[in-house]
Predict the 3D structure of the following.
Amino acid sequence: MEESWSKEDVAYLLRGTIAGGKHSELERFMNAELPQRLSLGRPLRVKLGLDPKTPSLHVGHLAPLLCLKRFQDKGHKTFLLLGGFTARFGDPSGRREPRAPLSQEEIHRNAQVYEEQAFRILDRSKTVLVNNSVWFDDMDVSTLMADVLRPLSLAVALSHGPFRNRYEANEPVSVVELLYTALQAYDSMVVCAAKEGKEDDPAEYRDMAGTLDVCCDVEIGGEDQIFNFGVTRRLMHARHLPEEIPVVLEYVTGARDQPIGPGRRRYIPLNLDPDDLYKAIVAVPDKSLLRTFRSITDLSDDEIASMKDEIGRDPHSLRKLLARAVVRLAHGEEAASLAERAYETHPRGEPVPKSAVVLTGEEAKAEMGAIVLVQAAGFASGVREAEFLLSEGSIFLNDKPLAISDELEIVDGAVLQRGRGLWAKAVLIRVAPVAIVLPYSMLGKPVDAVDLAIMSGAARNLQEAETLLKQRRVFLGGIELGLARQAEVRDGILVEVVGEDGQRRPVARLDLPE
């Protein structure tokens, strides 16, 4: 039979996989067995399994999703398996403690999000979507014991490092955790069984395990899946089936070289606000750039190869290109353009204040202590937490770190920030001359704009209030007030007025009675 594939095709399909001898046996499996399976002259059956354990896919999931897309682009039959059954227990790979169980409602909600996010990348018309709860929920105990559990020996399960370490330390090792790998292996032996349009029919999968033409040829996953892949191959071999070929992807790394690949703790969800996602990705270290481009973007190999010389000259531009590519995959081209523009406005990635804390002139002149200011900004719920944040160097005023002992002179427009980078938060500090306590009669009721202008001191009388409101020069909580406007007043809200010079200045803070 004439081969319909080339070495370039194999390299394309194995893009971003482990290399360099760390897992030499697995590398041989991929590089030797994949060409052999391609030589069969039929589309391969390729599986990517994801347990919907979290409310969103994360950046590390882009690597296996893009890998699955490369297989479907080459005409192979691709299966996206959502582990509605296995997510109830969770993959124990690489963990030191059992996972907390999820409710059915949580799993269903997460699965809906996973599906929506995955099909921003995958071609829905070329992807078979399946859920392993379809066959496992239908399975009786005798079938579970005979077909799923019997082939797995305790010795094999306890050969897994985390299990062995916990067992030897006399720490809990749940039977459910030991069986997870057998469940995943069973997935690979039935996932392709259903006829088109019948993927949700349990009868399609019943008694199909071990049938030659419904088994996976290829399974995609990260380095944390290596033990699971090994068990699956072992169990398929025991059933005299062609062993699936594991396509094992390297972890990609983010800031501080922390892994962001599947199964790792650096969790950067794809449903992050595009601006925040852009800032998270732009922190990728220079030495990881090319590998990260290969793993979590859909740029071509030629495009990536052309970047090699740019790393030494202008790595920051490449990091921005990477961030744009990732945001485009997660949120679309328009969102990527807007996120890039927002980052250019704040090139160091400082957070834009999305709320404000309003102080009076008297409070600001009293040289408020750092501990009190941190609590006033809502960054800490008490003195102890505020002291901890300050001692850790996590609080900045106008980009300068604050210490516990600092006595501060606060000016209007100062920015108080907690943390750096992606998870940083910032508030704008506004200083009003006075605080005015509103009468009880105004609690919970809309207040007329004219009354607000006079009570706050923005206007001295009715005529001046009407003039200012007609000219749209009075603002409440940053919102422009008109003459006929009524507004809800909340505690601590700022009133501003636009002066003759066109600048807005604080007039008063409005406080509700206790």
Summary: Residues 43-244 form a domain with the Rossmann fold fold (CATH 3.40.50.620). Residues 261-265 have pLDDT under 50 and may be disordered.
